[in-house]
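Chain A, query sequence.
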Amino acid sequence: MIFDPKMTEKKQGRFILPQNANAVLHPCLDKSVVHEFWHNFTFNASSLSITHSDELIFRIGNTPKAELEEFDYSINIDPDGVCVHAKSEKDLICGFMTLLDRIEADDVNEATVATLDCAVIKDFPSIKNRMVHFCIFPETEIWEIQRFIRFCGALKYTHVVLEFWGMLKYDCMRELSWQSAFTKEQIRPIIKEANDLGLEIIPMFNHWGHAAASRVRHGKHVVLDQDPSLQTYFSPDGWCWDIKKQKVRDLLRRIRNELIELCGKASYFHIGCDEAYNFEFTKENMDTICLFLNEIEEDLRAQGRRMIAWGDMFLCRHQNYNPNNRYTCNAPNEEAAQYMLSRLDRNIIIADWQYDATEAPVETAAVFANAGFDCLLCPWDRGNKNMRAIISTAVDQALMGIMHTTWHTLSTGMPFVTGAAVGSFDTFKDLGGTYTAALYRKVMFVDGDYTRAGWSKKQIDSIC
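Chain A, predicted structure.
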């Protein structure tokens, strides 16, 4: 089992899942991906026959509901059946995923069966907003997007941030995407499946730095490598959008609108804004960027969304910070950082990525919180100490949530996605790769395809 709920009362006996399980459930669970999950998580030993109910339940047999009390969902398992009960549809999906996590395989009369140990289980998350940031590179295949999102659903995340690194074809400018980019029609079914798993998709597009839609170390530029005449949209080095120009602001607005239409109903939009190299922190420039961000926030608010932005450009180094935590702060001094924070709309959410902080509290989060901003702390796969410091700070300071980032390192970093999810319900634990592998193979069967097995297409790059 991956998750350790806040309350587990063990009972005698076990429930053996029938080959054809007659389930009474709320319609939010009657989705094709849920049926597939049930088949995979029961080791192909059980399938579901469905009867709908208006109640927020998932029940096999006549097992009664366990009282919710202060918890979001409860699970009651006895030798005759199981009942999951919840406060909301998303809580019910969460409880269902917890149930799947507890299914084990056994032999009965030389046949594989799926079983559940009898218990009463109740839980709620320690961190309400549990987000994952996923990058779609030219090397990313469509099945990898779908499988990762399924994985996040099984891990009970609430949101997935999708950043298309030149890999979505836009109507507003052809050069925003590489020739191999995905069409919206290819992405829409994945968005629907994410919603079926209780996930909100947060679209992301960089509005300041990272305008190349490519990693800086490799020198590619999605727009200028296709049409150099479009240089006037960017800074001289091509890394930042020239936000002083109205045509750039108009283009970015059209991009936002296309992404919002594609990704469907949700509460947020991530505009990036980190690592704006060569930005000169003059008063005029700082006024320009703050006005630009506030205008975007106002536009998004009118569409029922809040804006998320990275926080590094609004932080400066302090001598009073914990010397064991190396913070990423790209403002030159406290005066510039405070000036920019004072000009920003307080409805903006700051995503504070501090990958080299290894001891709690992560002090930069308090800078944003004290200035009146909601803050998301963002770990990466830099190590267990960083993950533990981020999660404990988010819990202890009652921050808005966490946003686990994955960047280009999922081929080795997938266990940290599991760790961030588990830590959001309980304390962070280093589960290693085996638990992650066991879950990853269940969310999408690969039918013996070597390149799709696990989370890395290859085990070695060359013969040693």
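The mean pLDDT is 97. The longest strand covers residues 111-123.
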